[in-house]
Structures are given as C-alpha cells and as structure tokens.
Amino acid sequence: MARIPPAVATIRQAVRRVLPADGLVLVACSGGADSLALAAAARFVGRSVGLVTVDHGLQDGSAARAADVAAWASGAGLSPVMVETVSVAGRPGGPEGAAREARYEALNAAAERAGAVAVLLGHTRDDQAETVLLALARGAGPRGLSGMPARKGIFVRPLLDVARADTRKSCAALGLAPWEDPHNSDPAFARSRVRGAALPALVEALGPAVVANLARSAELIAADNEELDRLAGAAASVDVSDLSAMSRAIRRRVLHSWALRLGAPGGALSHRHVAALDALVTQWHGQGPVHLPGGIQVARERGVLVRVP
Q1: For the segment 72-125, what is each residue's pLDDT rounded down to a tens digit?
Q2: Which numeric CATH code is attached to 6-206?
Q3: Cβ atoms within 10 Å of 228's Cβ, excluding its own
Q4: Domain spans, the chain
C-alpha cells in the first residue's frame, strides 16, 4: 500500500479533528493552494461535503476561474457545488475589507440555502502570523492580536496550525494545480507586503520558528480574551459607580460591547472611541458627549452613561 505523503496526512488529520459528526459541510474554495488542499482533504475524510466558490468580479477571467473550481469540485465528488457572484463596488472600507465583507455575506447565504452546519476556511498558520503582524502595526489591542478564531459561528478554520508550505506540498502530491491569485503578491495591499517582505525578514532575523510563535501568541491571547469577555458580560452595567469599581480591562470591554449594542459599527469603533467613553467614567470634568461611529452620541447624566439625541 502506498504511503500517504506527510503533507496530505497532516491536512487530513487537521480536518478530521474539526468535522462535525453529522450534517453537510461546505468548503470555501478560491482555487488557491490552501483552500484546494482543504477541499481535497475534507472530501476524503468527510461524509457530506460540498463546496462554495465566490466570484468577486475584481479581475479579468474571475467568472471562468470560479467555473473551473466548480467543475473540479463536481468531478471530485463534492456536492453541492455552488458559485456565488458578489459586487464589491460601493461598499465602505478599502478593497480588501469590502471584498472580505461581500465574501462572508455570500458564504453565509450559501450555507443557509444548502442547510450546511459548517463552512470550512483555508487560513493557515502563516495567515495567522500575518494577521498578528498587521494588528501590531496598527496598534491593535488584545482583540486584534488574538488573530483569526479557529471557530466562529458556522465558520471553522482547520488549518490554523498547518504551514502554508504543507498545503502546496499536498496539492503537488495529489496532482492538483492551484490558482495563484495576483493580489497575493501585489504590493498595493498591506497583507501582500507583510507576506512578501516583512514576515520573511523576521524569519531571516529570528529564525523559522517565528511564524509558529506568532500564531501561538494569537491562540494564547484569544484564550485570555474569552475569559475577559465572559467577565465583562457578567458585569455589563453603564452606571458610573459600577463601572468605576471595575478593572480597566473589564470596564473598557463593557463599554466596547455597550457601544456595539447601541449600533456603532464594529469595523469603525476604535480604541479612541472606547477611551473617550472611559474618560466619562474616570476623568469626568463636565465634558460634552462622546461621538461614536454611526452618528451615536453618549453623555454622562446623573451618574449614568446614556445615549443622547
């Protein structure tokens, strides 16, 4: 019996650990090495596995590539196979953020229509390390430094402890020809600059273990975040006397969550906004209302934080 190539075995084991016992699973596949290797592994180890590919319409030939991915999936025995076409134009944020938002909306919609219990995403350990570096560069707090979660809602990332090199080796061993997205090497995108220059420079300076160490740091911070969020949820009060008694870490999480409940868009709600809310509690000297994203204003009135017209 032929020996299974190590990279193929690594990815199959990673997928096997997270697959639900029952129900349809969809693999989100762009045709790149990461998601292609993931789809092949899921098809091998899973009972009911389909595939969804998203055409963002941002590059010439994108529709044809989506059709090629769908044809491969059908031939490989994945079912159902779905092609989702989205429009990125007019969405807020930069092109990366707009495309990501449109993609997740499409994946959610596809999963709902198909009755899928999970959608597998092909992000690897290298992607996680890049995410942490980007978060450090923009001065993110623990939420940003925790990177991408292994599981959030219906989305599952089985490969966060798998090296990107292994997905390429797996594709080669299985005779799969992944698509090389030109955006991944385009210096116009911050992640591409981190991938092509910043992270390789760190590896050269600090050794190859830096990628795994960055990813592990994200995992450790995520665990701390989960506990802090739990404590903040149990103490969700906007009475100034209650807030003043909380530690700074818990208080700011309570304020962040409260701002989201008021309707502030999460992507625009920054450390600066939460710090201004915190100042209403800890540095009160009669200042006016805090302006939050989404046209929301918050003031301190009679010892309570309130939304004002």
Answers
A1: 999 999 999 999 988 777 666 666 777 788 899 999 999 999 999 999 999 999
A2: 3.40.50.620
A3: 17
A4: 6-206, 236-308
